[in-house]
């Protein structure tokens, strides 16, 4: 008896992988008591996770199996294990990386603002779950209130884009004593994650 052969990837998504292999010959299928399991392992939260699933698609002319509930942008090691009364045979191991996905939000507590009269220096950290390579940060801002009710705040808004390795920006030309709302969202190649908002108020001269 030989082990499963020609283990290949059919499709890769951010949270699932579909594999296929060469159909078994009569020397395997003639034995009614056999089973095929898909063994896979990956890192999650700093620990190695080991899983196995029974594949029921063993008599098809194009057998396939889809592994689900995976994490995006994660290396997964996969092999097939065939067992029957004659023993146990394993396929070669495949190492496959799941696709990227949109990231989680930038941590709210990481958004810090150093405030001056007409400037705010904004800093933040990347999302806890990047699910890929962060390529871009988008920051939208607008003035929401001022100590001086006569000030026209309608022109105090805008949008800034920063590269994925830049987690700070100096906003200038702001009004003193004015509260600004900053909304940040991170992006991978798959798109933007959820936005997160924080507010900071510029200083007033002499205060």
UniProtKB/TrEMBL annotation:
- InterPro entries tied to this protein: FN3_dom (IPR003961), FN3_sf (IPR036116), Ig-like_fold (IPR013783), R-tyr_protein_phosphatases (IPR051622)
| SMART domains attached to this UniProt entry | FN3
What lineage, starting at the top, does this entry show? Eukaryota, Metazoa, Chordata, Craniata, Vertebrata
Q: Where is the Fibronectin type-III domain?
A: 3-101, 102-207
Q: What is this protein called?
A: Fibronectin type-III domain-containing protein
Sorted alphabetically, which Pfam families does this protein's record hold?
Answer: fn3 (PF00041)
Q: Give the species.
A: Callipepla squamata
Q: What UniProt keywords are attached to this protein's entry? A: Disulfide bond, Repeat
């Amino acid at each position: 008896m030989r082990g499963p052969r020609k283990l290949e990837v059919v499709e890769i998504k951010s949270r699932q992988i579909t594999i296929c292999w060469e159909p078994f010959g009569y020397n395997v299928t003639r034995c009614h008591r056999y089973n095929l399991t898909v063994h896979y392992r990956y890192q999650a939260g700093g620990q190695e996770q080991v899983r196995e699933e029974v594949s029921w698609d063993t008599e098809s002319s194009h057998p396939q199996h889809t592994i689900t509930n995976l994490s995006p942008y994660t290396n997964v090691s996969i092999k097939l294990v065939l067992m029957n009364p004659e023993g146990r045979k394993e396929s070669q191991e495949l190492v496959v990386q799941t696709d990227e996905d949109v990231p989680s939000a930038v941590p709210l507590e990481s958004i810090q603002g150093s405030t001056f009269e007409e400037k705010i220096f904004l800093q933040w950290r990347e999302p806890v779950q990047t699910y890929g390579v962060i390529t871009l940060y988008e920051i939208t801002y607008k003035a929401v209130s001022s100590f001086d009710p006569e000030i026209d705040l309608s022109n105090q808004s805008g949008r800034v884009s920063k590269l994925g390795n830049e987690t700070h920006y100096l906003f200038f030309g702001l009004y003193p004593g004015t509260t600004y709302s900053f909304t940040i969202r991170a992006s991978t190649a798959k798109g933007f994650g959820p936005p997160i908002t924080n507010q900071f108020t510029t200083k007033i001269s002499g205060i």
